[in-house]
Each structure stands twice: as C-alpha cells, then as structure tokens.
Amino acid sequence: MPQHPPTTRFVSANGLKLAYDTFGDADAQPLVLIMGLGTQMIAWDEAFCEQLAARGYRVIRFDNRDVGRSTYLDAAGLPDIGQLLARTLAGFAIDAASVPYTLADMAHDTVGLLDALDIPSAHIVGASMGGAIAQEMALRHPARMRTLTSIMATSGAPDLPPPQPEALQVLLAPAPTDRAGYVARYQQVMKVLRAGSDAHEEALDAPRAERAFERGLNPAGYARQLAAILASGSRRERLGSVSTPTLVIHGDADPLVPIECGRDVVRHVSGARMVNIAGMGHALPQSAWTPIIDAIAGHVA
C-alpha cells in the first residue's frame, strides 16, 4: 500500500459514471488498466501501478460498469446465468440483445473514459475479462489504442480447454454479502485461482477482501458481466484483423483460463508475441510483478 493512495475521481462516460484514479506524471504516455469479472480496480495493486508508472507512464485504472464505485445497471435486471450457460455449453450462440450489455459495450466504456480525460489514444492492458474487453477495443476502436496487452485472457473460442472444475465452481458460486462471509469466500476463491499455496499472498487476502467490501459489492453486476462474457462469444475469427501491436501474458498454471487460451490469441493476432509466467495461476501475485511489468514496459516501448 502506498503512503498516499491516489484520490478516486469520477467521469461521465458512455452514459455512465466511471470511478478512476491515476499514477505517475500527468504528461507521460497514458496506460489504461482494465480489470476482470466482478473485480474492482483496486485489484491492480497500488504498488504494482506505481512500479509501472515509474517506467515512464501515466497509469490509469478504473472500475468497470457494475462494479466498485462505478454505475450499477440495476434497471437492466438480472440475467438467467443458468440458462445462458446451458446454451453456451450446448454450442448455441446467445443473442446479444437478450443480455443487458456485451463486452463491446464495455470496450466503449473504456473509449468513453479516454474521451472524458481528453486522451486521443493509450496503451491498453487488460486482465481476464479485461483482456477480452481490450481485444474488443482493438477490434472496434483501433485508432484509440497504441498497444494491446492481454493478460490471462481467451479468444473465447468454444473448442479451447475449459476451466478446471474447482475453478469453474468458485466462478459460479454466489458470494456472501456479509463481511465475514465475503472475506472467507474471497480467501477460498483466491487460493483456488492461484493454483497452489502462497503464504505471502494468502496473508494479503483478508485485507484486500475487507477493502473491496468497504468500496461496495454488487452481486447482480457480477451476473450481468458474466452474461456479457457469455453473449459476446468467440473473437477468434475476427482477431486476424487486429493491427494493434499485441502482447499476451499468461501463467502456465492458470486453472480458470488455461494457457492454451492465451496461445490461441497469439496464433490469431498477426505479429503477437507471448510471455509465459511459470507457475502463475489466474491472479497477479507479487512474485510475478517484475516479469509482468518488464514485459509490459518492453512491449509499449
């Protein structure tokens, strides 16, 4: 935790209120961090952001719609995740009009953030669902991107290896809404996603969960974001048109989005390259920060 955490600010973007903060020199090259499913911007740890900013970038992180302190789309209702999953597993496409929003809409949110901050283009880094949003941004708004870094994300192709059963179970299980239950659940989820014991990270889980709880939980928003992932389908066939310089970072122990999913992105984006983080699961542990930051800084340079 930095001595002086940045001030959370708000902008109007794409018809929403988005919460964000920044690190580094305001005149440096902008680098935007997009977080994953149901996860607040604080999952991009302040010290991680500061180390990235120290490489010469204006680092911007924000809460996606329906999470943290950004707008909750409660009026959009609650999607039937069971039905959507059943259709997906049966190989049927989901009509985008049948869900509250898609990953393309969330990519447009990121563009709206850039508009509000008067940033013509930025380096875009996304993790998990955030990586998929960044891919959609490269497909739909290439002029707004200087580079793309897709971390532990998939192309969405249905023939790729699925999550390990335990990882899928923690993804779909409802989170408790009381403080003690939420903290315990968070600890359980992170232990599964990290794919192994890590005493240092496990000691940080409770305070991280407490902080997320204090900023605000939105279980319905989690469901809407998951519906957006399911309804957005595969990007594989379109990735060949991506012209943005692309880096893929993936852990070889990822139990939720197996590394073959990252390799699929590399295979289909012309000129993309991959950095494999040995032993990393579906998380950003401090032990992996240096190779991740080195890879991002090398790519955007």
Automatic annotation (TrEMBL):
InterPro entries: AB_hydrolase (IPR050471), AB_hydrolase_1 (IPR000073), AB_hydrolase_fold (IPR029058)
Location of the AB hydrolase-1 domain: 30-283
BP term (GO), one: glycerolipid catabolic process
Keywords: Hydrolase
SUPFAM superfamilies assigned to the protein according to its UniProt record, in alphabetical order: alpha/beta-Hydrolases
Keyword Hydrolase: yes
GO molecular function: triacylglycerol lipase activity
PANTHER family: AB HYDROLASE-1 DOMAIN-CONTAINING PROTEIN (PTHR43433:SF5), HYDROLASE, ALPHA/BETA FOLD FAMILY PROTEIN (PTHR43433)
Protein name per its UniProtKB record: Alpha/beta fold hydrolase
Record organism: Verticiella sediminum
